[in-house]
Structure formats: C-alpha cells, structure tokens
Amino acid sequence: MTAKRRRQATHDERILGLALLAALPAAAVALVLLWTGDYSAKVQWTLSLLVVGTWLGASAALRERVVRPLQTLANLLAALREGDFTIRARHARNEDPLGAALAEVNLLGQTLRTQRLGALEASELLARVMEEIDVAVFAFDEERRLRLANRAGERLLGRGDVLGTPAAELGLAACLHGDAPRTMVLPFPGGQGPWELRRGSFRQEGLPHELVVLTDVSRALREEELRAWQRLVRVLGHEINNSLTPIQSIALSLRQLLGRSPRPEDWEEDTKRGLEVVERRAEALSRFMTSYTRLARLPRPRRGPVDVGAWVRRTAELEKRLPVQVDAGPDVVIQADGDQLDQLLINLVRNAADAALETGGGVTLGWHTSSAQVTVTVADDGPGLSDGGNLFVPFFTTKPGGSGIGLVLSRQIAEAHRGTLALENRAGTRGAEARLTLPRA
C-alpha cells in the first residue's frame, strides 16, 4: 500500500471512528434499556443485534456522506490545477455547506475556462499581429540571448535559426545599450536602415527580458524628403518667376526699342526706367535668396546662462511703437543661445505690435514655469489670425512688404533649443497669442 493510500485509509478510518463515537451514546442507551427491560433472552439478543447493526450502518452512511463529497471536491480542485476546466460536480446544491462548496467550485471552473479561452484568443491575435507587422521585434533574456523574433526580425537578420544566439553575434548588441527611442544606422543582411530603436522590458516565467523593436524609417524619410524638395521647388519657382517675368518682358521691350531706326526722342528715358525696373527686381531676387540662405543655414545654438526675466524685459523695451506690458513670472535661468533667443522674441513682439496697431490695442509679454520647462507668452489685441494653417510656411506672409521667414526662423530657433513655438487665436477675446516653450535643463 502506497503512502498516499495509507494516508487516505487513515483519514477514512478517522471519519468512521468519529461517526461511531457520535452514535455511541444513542446505541448505549438503547442497549441499556433493552437489557434492563422485561424481555426474553431471545428478544434481547435479536434487538441487540439490530441496534448494533443500525449503529454501524448509520456510522458507515455518515462516513460516506462526508468522505465522498470531500473526495469529489479534491478531484475538482486537482482538475482545475491541471488546467482541465471541463469536469463538473453533479448534484451540487446550495442546500448544505458541502453542496454549496461544490457549486462554487463549478462556477470557478466555468470562470477559469472563460478566462483561459480569452487569454488564448488574445495570445493568438498577438502572435498573428507580431508575424504580420513590418517591424522587427526581438526579445533577449538576462544573458543577452535571443528568445523571440518575429518574421520581420528573421528577414532582417537573413536567417531563421536565431533563437538562443547571443546579441553580439546577431549584430544587435548596440540595440541593448544607450538611449531609446533613437535613430541609428546598422547594416543587416535584410536592410541598411536607418532604424528607429525602441526598447522595453518584461518578465516571462518570473525572469526579466529585454524587448527591442526596430522600425525602418528610410521609406518615410524618402517620402518626406521628396515632399520637402517639392515644396522647395514650388516656392523657389514662384519667387524666381515673379522676378524673371518682368525682367524678361522689359529686356524684350528694350531690345525692340534699341532696334528701331530712327529711335524715339525719349528712348533714353524709356531705357533708363526699364533698367531701373530690372535693377529693382534683381535686388528683390537677391534679397529673397539671401533670406532663404539665412533660413537654411541657422547655426547650432551656443548655449550659456540666460536670465528669462532680463531677456523678456529687454525685448519689451526694444519695441518703440507702443508700450509692451510685462507680466513678470518667477526668477529662472536657462541654458540657451541668448542671441538666437533675442532674434526669436523680437520677431514675436514685432508681429504682435503690428497686429495691435491695426486695432489700437496693446501687447502683453509674460512667462511662467513648471518643473521641466519655461513658457513665454506674447499676446496681442489685434484682429486675430485669419489663416493659421500657413503661418509657418516659408515666405508666406499677410503683411505688405513682409519676407515670410520671421515665424519660420523663430520656430527653427525654438526647435534647435528642444522647445516648441505655437501661435493661435486667443480664447474668449480678440487677438492672437504666441507660446514659446523651452526646457529648463
């Protein structure tokens, strides 16, 4: 007999002993009354045997009533532990505690079965998505060995038997170090990049793993480069044609004039006026190319300490056409290129003043801070923005004589400092507001 069976027999014997002990007082009383009564010996022995048999039978039935449901409950729990959620206890009713326990176990099995099916379906969906997406996904264990690679990852590595291979042998060691996300160039048999690297961590079976995701951004970069070239050619073509068309027309007129014989009496005056027009258009085209060169060759910021309060007050004092109100914020010093920030804020204040002069309004300049950034606001009481979608398009302007590069250059300066520049109409009142956000660190 095995140890498990011995334990089960001992438990059953204890249950039977408790049942016998529970029924013993009733049986003893019955026997005492029987043998002290006025019965014949035959009747006494017959009834004694009947009492003892009833006592033993009731004890065995009680044992069966207690042990069998417990065995059923144990079998159900063992099935749930093994992942078999199809077994159910019959006659599980809420009429007694054991029946209620069996009914609860049945409900638990049904709930676990539903949850398991949902988890399996979700896992299957995730696996299908992982295989179909055009993004390389890798997972490495603590020893930097590859434990998971989707189909795109295998194509990138140019092989399928990659599981268990160290990251260094696969050329992926650089992906497990450094900042993320970031863009990097790594040569692989299945592509040259550049790649956008994203990295995360997860646990599987209690062990830490590192997740690496590589996205090929070359196609997106080529498409954006094509759009940039198209915009550049459209802008340059428009501006150059604006100057070359009158120059060509005047040159043709002057050639025809000089070809006449005899020439008109005022031909020298006509020639002078025509050459002046050609000169003005050539100067305009030269200014345009100079502005574009300035926009395309913005130098890298030379960072140093900049007192935000002093910078804002100094810029407000430079505007002489109208007084600029300054709403002072907390004292704060940032690391930035002071000359570039001067140019940026001067552009914003000048634009705000131009708008405010149209309506006789004012300009308010202020700043506030958070734990990570400084926000400088320039608000005006002008007519507001009529075409917000083209504000940052190079050479687009709504002001007569405007160059159309001030806001574009200002945003480039903000982004070169890892900041942002936004311009929109003020909420609930007239005018527009520019918001410049710069990091404090």
Key structural traits:
441 residues; alpha+beta; disordered N terminus; 10 helices; five-stranded mixed sheet; five-stranded antiparallel sheet
Quick one: how many beta strands?
12
Question: Averaged pLDDT, please?
Answer: 76
Structural class: alpha+beta
* Low-pLDDT regions: 3-9
Q: What is the first-to-last residue Cα distance?
A: 76 Å
Biggest sheet, spatial arrangement of strands:
2-1-5-4-3
Biggest sheet: strands, sense, closure? 5 strands, antiparallel
Give me the number of helical elements.
Answer: 10
Rg, Å, rounded:
45 Å
Order of helices and strands: HHHEEHHEEEHHEHEEHEEHEE
Shape descriptor reads: elongated
Work out the strand percent.
15-25%
Helical content stands at 40-55%
Word description of this protein:
The protein has 441 residues and is of the alpha+beta class. Helices cover 54% and strands 17% of the residues. It has ten helices and twelve strands. The strands form three sheets. It has a five-stranded antiparallel β-sheet with strand order 2-1-5-4-3. The chain is elongated and about 160 Å long. Residues 3-9 have low confidence and may be disordered.
Question: What's the layout of helices and strands?
Answer:
Elements lengths: L2 H34 L4 H41 L15 H36 L3 E5 L5 E4 L1 H7 L9 H4 L11 E3 L10 E10 L2 E10 L1 H41 L8 H30 L7 E4 H11 L5 E4 L5 E4 L1 H22 L3 E7 L3 E8 L25 H11 L3 E6 L6 E8 L2
Parallel strand pairs: 7-9
Antiparallel strand pairs: 1-2, 1-5, 3-4, 4-5, 6-8, 9-10, 10-12, 11-12
